[in-house]
Amino acid sequence: MQGQVAILTVTPAAEHRWLEAELTDGTGALTLIWMGRHRIAGVTPGRSLRVTGLISERGGRRVMFNPGYELLP
Length: 73
Known about the structure:
Layout: E1 2-11, E2 18-24, E3 29-35, E4 48-52, E5 55-58, E6 61-65, E7 68-72
Parallel strand pairs: 3-6
Antiparallel strand pairs: 1-2, 1-4, 2-3, 4-7, 5-6
């Protein structure tokens, strides 16, 4: 999937820290969760990404855990 990072959030819990991003493509949204991370260079709001991985459902949302990603210009 390819889209733009709309929202970027860090969950600061010491034992469960993760970086969460909402990726939108004009047709819907996908929540990306990188477990154990609090920052990824280049992944910022407004940045375009191409992501790969398994899409699952969590709390009624489409979610991809620890996706592979490519920063797009």
